[in-house]
Write a structure and sequence with these properties.
Blueprint: H1 12-29, H2 32-54, H3 61-70, H4 73-87, H5 90-100, H6 103-119, H7 122-137, H8 141-153, H9 155-174, H10 184-192, H11 195-213, H12 219-229, H13 232-267
Helix pairs in contact: 1-5, 2-13, 3-13, 4-13, 5-13, 6-11, 7-8, 7-11, 8-11, 9-10, 9-11, 9-13
């Protein structure tokens, strides 16, 4: 949940080296390697849980090796960087980087990463959501401010659209296993059945995350950061990040579905 921009200089031969590195610099400023490590572990855990359902006690050496490669940190990092290059202009990236090099920018960059790592633990996630919901019900000013900001920035809708697309990709890949007999109509029906509950779940997760992650910020710091997020640069960065992360999620979900389908077909030979 962040933002971005770059200032174009007039000396082309001098700007090229900067432009070549600007997205790497944004990646580093947001401590995305730490997030990638979490994404890898979450992907492996999800693949294991899914394999236990579909493959049960089948021999799955090739499947496990393929999953390990699918969620390799280098692969995820490469996809994210490519996504940022495609979705975020160099000028916006440079402007965003200027913010993340300020004391406040460096602080929130670290807080968001620390929060993302922490909330990957189920117990922490449950606690964070519970605390945030109780604060919201008690009309806590910060909780209400963060909920309003999340709504204005469309954070729930961004996450929801990504979740739906990833589910569709996974089920489409899985449908390649003839024995399951999954049709396109069934895929759409499966995705649509729990839209309301999924939206509510994501909405609570978003508030739980930001309420926990930004707790160390003073009211002034939080106000300044939210102003940055809602600026044109902030919105550009947020959109680029969501597009990049969602693209990784959709790609990996689709590939996981295909790997499971291949493993199922191999088992039946």
């Amino acid at each position: 949940m962040r933002i971005l921009a770059i200032f174009v200089t007039t000396v082309l031969f001098l700007t090229r080296p900067v432009c070549a590195e600007i997205h790497h610099d944004i990646y580093a400023a947001l401590h995305m390697d730490e997030v990638v490590a979490v994404m890898r572990q979450e992907g492996l855990d999800e693949a294991e849980a899914t394999a236990e359902i579909y493959l049960k006690n089948s021999v799955r050496n090739n499947f496990d090796d393929a999953v390990d490669a699918l969620y390799a940190e280098a692969s995820i990092k490469g996809q994210l960087l490519n996504g940022l290059r495609a979705a975020l202009s160099e000028s916006d990236a440079e402007l965003a980087l200027e913010f993340y090099r300020t004391p406040l920018g460096m602080l929130v960059g670290k807080l968001e990463t620390t929060g993302r790592v922490a909330i990957s633990n189920d117990a922490v996630e449950e606690m964070a959501i519970s605390i945030a919901q109780k604060a919201l019900q008690a009309k806590d000013e910060r909780a209400e401010l963060l909920q309003s900001a999340a709504d204005e920035m469309g954070l729930t809708e961004y996450n929801l659209s990504g979740a739906f697309a990833a589910r569709y990709a996974f089920l489409s890949g899985l449908s390649e296993a003839d024995e399951l007999g999954i049709s396109q109509d069934q895929i759409i029906e499966l995705i649509a059945t729990d839209e309301d509950s999924l939206r509510a779940e994501i909405d609570q997760w978003v508030l739980g995350f930001v309420f926990m992650a930004y707790r160390p910020l003073s009211d002034t710091e939080l106000s300044d950061y939210l102003a940055f997020q809602m600026s044109s640069i902030g919105k550009a960065l947020n959109q680029a990040l969501f597009e990049s992360f969602n693209a990784v999620s959709i790609h990996n979900a689709g590939q996981l579905g295909k790997l499971l389908a291949t493993a199922l077909q191999a088992r039946d030979l």
